[in-house]
Design brief:
Keywords: DNA-binding, Nucleus, Transcription, Transcription regulation. This is Protein SOMBRERO-like. It holds the Pfam family NAM. This protein is α+β, with helices and mostly antiparallel strands and about 180 residues long. The protein has a single domain, classed as Beta Complex (Metal Binding Protein, Guanine Nucleotide Exchange Factor, Chain A), CATH 2.170.150.80. It has five helices and nine strands. The strands form two sheets. A seven-stranded mixed sheet has the order 1-2-9-6-5-4-3. A two-stranded antiparallel sheet has the order 7-8. The longest helix is centred in the N-terminal third of the chain and has 13 residues. It is globular, with a radius of gyration of 16 Å.
Length: about 180
Amino acid sequence: METSQRLLELEMPVGYRFVPTDEELVKYYLANKVLYKPLPVKIIREIDAHDLYSKHPKCLVGNGTFNDNEREWFFFIYKDEYFLGKTRSTRMVGNGIGFWRFIGEEEPIHNSEGDIFAFKIYLTYFSGSPPHAKKTHWRMEEYRLQTEINGRNKQEVQECILARIIRGRNYTDSI
């Protein structure tokens, strides 16, 4: 297990499981991060978009060191020229080893008052390159805030999104 992951575990109480709702992820983690406010707990790793989208998901979550109980990993993704230059339909990984493909439409996230305050998009990882790519068990959910956050426009806050990478149950069948 890598050192940064061990440090994260040391900050967490014994038996603690990080299973936030969409609203909690956006309200307490993503919004605080982009507004430079303290986070409730430092459990979400930070990564540049290029680093995230240039590696196979297995490499991002621990190079095979995960166990059967680990199925979700969280990342703050800092937008960079790589991220901003990609099309909406796919994000290529590495040298044609695979790509993330958007599945469905962007879904609004409502706060407890019923107002839309963020958006969520689903992605699936495909190994290989089109047209012979194979759908894998890896999924990602990306969360982004509205254009205005607490009365501040996007130019006044960090350009960051939050991602939840999910490993499907049948992880031995595909890469």
